[in-house]
Design a protein that fits this description.
With 84 residues, the chain is an all-alpha fold. The chain is 74% helix and 0% strand. 18% of the residues are buried.
């Protein structure tokens, strides 16, 4: 099984609070709290967080933060295009 990206590290690197992170990802504050406590995300959350980690690596945290504020869809597509 693939290793989940460290969720707390991604959130903190991007400078989002737990509530902001929950809103951006479309999950509850409780879900973010569980991730911060070490519970691994699964399914779609794992895929989205992996794409965000990739985008940070490819584009930089400041760029990714700005993109996330305006919507996650274009960010994911941009990160995938950067890998080609």
């Amino acid at each position: 099984m693939a290793q989940a990206p460290p969720v707390t590290n991604i959130r903190e690197e991007l400078g989002f609070s737990k509530s902001e992170w929950a809103r951006i990802l479309g999950v509850t504050d409780r879900t973010v709290y569980r991730w911060d406590e070490g519970k691994d995300p699964s399914g779609m959350a794992f895929a989205v967080l992996s794409a965000i980690r990739l985008a940070v690596k490819e584009c930089g945290a400041a760029h990714v933060r700005a993109r996330l504020i305006f919507g996650i869809g274009p960010l994911i597509l941009e990160a995938l295009e950067a890998r080609k």
